[in-house]
Amino acid sequence: MYVTLFIWGTTFVTSKMVLQNMAPLQLTFIRFLIGFLLLAPFAARQGFRLRQVFEWKYLLFGLTGTTLYYALQNVGMTFTSVSSTSLILASVPALTTLLAVIFLKERLERRQVLGIALVTIGVALISLNDFLRPGSASGSNPRLGNLLILCSALAWAVYTIQGRRMNDVPALVATAAGMGAGALLLIPFMGWEIAARGLTLDVGWMTWLGVLYLSVAASGLTSFLWNYTLHYFSASEASAYINLVPIIAVATGIFYGERPPLVQILGGALAIAGVLLSSAPRGASKKVAGILIKN
Q: What whole-number distance in Å separates Cα of residue 163 and Cα of residue 64?
């Protein structure tokens, strides 16, 4: 569990470093092509077939979970900071809960409404500093970058809702098919990027080491470890641990040289508190609320 969270938390700063030398869509395509090639043999043992990559269900699954989420995230990170990226993406569970109400007709409890409100305020505070002082963030256009990151969070929330409707498909099969379909859908956009910027594959070995880390560790290995972890933790327990990811990301961002202002740290704390409150099990709502009040 902790190995998975550490890898996920360090992907933001790794991506930021790789993006200094490699174009964002080319990075996204290479990352998930390698990830797909790693997962496909294991998924085949559970019934995966290559033709599934071309089925509409998986094309839509890959569009949201790979093409839009990671492409928007990588492009957004060229304009904004690691800290802003990770803290805004902490809103994903709350966005997922909101979409579940709209599309899956799930009911919201009061604590979930409060949690979503806290997340909204938190994300607003994270972006507020960049809107008022755009030159203070580690990026050339943090306003645009933060907007793209928020759109990527929404894409992942939609992807999660799609995943909930695939209960009849083994998780590894759906992941491999969606990853392959997402990489396939990236090709025309990557072609446009190559036409505009040229190929950016002539980079140093450190950049390629970062690409391999994102592909093998952050895409292939963590998918296996996460599925393995879910045999020993409930979904709610696992979701609570995910809130450590933005904290690890901000810490690695500081190591990278970023210094997030106090308003962003406050916004991140509110966003994480909101996620904890909205995703806590029903029986734990009072306990979580008590922790939040105490702190």
A: 11
CB 265 within 8 A of CB 81: no
Encoded tokens for 21: 């030398």
Domain ranges of the chain: 2-93+140-261
Task: Give the pair of three-digit tokens for residue 224.
Answer: 């296996």
The model's pTM is 0.81
Q: Residue-wise pLDDT tens for the chain (295 aa)?
A: 678 888 988 999 999 999 999 999 999 999 999 989 988 999 999 999 999 999 999 999 999 989 999 999 999 999 988 888 888 887 887 788 788 888 878 777 888 788 888 888 887 777 776 666 655 555 678 889 989 999 999 998 898 888 877 878 888 888 899 999 999 999 999 999 999 999 998 899 999 999 999 998 887 777 667 656 655 654 445 555 666 777 788 888 887 777 777 777 888 788 778 877 766 655 544 443 333 333 3
Query: 256: closest CA among 82, 76, 88?
Result: 82
Structure tokens, 265: 């740290």
Quick one: tokens of 120?
């909204």
